[in-house]
Design a protein that fits this description.
This protein has five helices and no strands. It is mostly helical. It has two domains: 89 residues, no CATH class; 34 residues.
Length: 133
């Protein structure tokens, strides 16, 4: 948001450059944090989680690229980046939900998968499951 308003206000070049630097410095950490949280939530399918996150990120990036120039032309730099900033803020609650309840969901999923694996072994062995040695 600050970047857009600094461009709108024709601030000295150092201001938007510093704001771009700070944004670029923080963005990889946010992406990696979300990636780690998702992989930890689905430990049996880390490549699927990574692929899903990457494809969603690519679609969002393509959509933003298609929309941002008409927005800049229509409403200006400051309001465009303000709207984009609020859209980013709207993506935070799902992360908080995942952080708060995700470990419990992961534990329930692990127990369910272990139970299904045990039932599958019972079905293939005729109902008897011995201790593996």
């Amino acid at each position: 948001m600050g970047y857009g308003w600094s461009i709108y206000a024709h601030a000295p070049l150092a201001v938007p450059l510093v704001l771009m630097f700070l944004g670029g410095l923080m963005l990889p950490g946010a992406v990696m944090g979300r990636q780690t949280l998702l992989v930890d939530s689905y430990p049996l399918a880390p490549s699927g989680v990574t692929a899903a996150q990457n494809i969603v990120r690519c679609f969002v990036g393509a959509g933003a690229t298609a929309v941002v120039q008409p927005m800049l032309t229509g409403i200006g730099d400051g309001w465009t980046f303000t709207i984009l900033g609020f859209l980013v803020v709207l993506t935070l609650p799902p992360v908080w939900v995942q952080k708060r309840w995700g470990p419990g969901w992961r534990e329930k999923r692990a127990l369910r998968e272990e139970k299904e694996k045990l039932e599958s072994r019972k079905a293939t062995t005729g109902g008897e499951v011995g201790v593996e040695q």
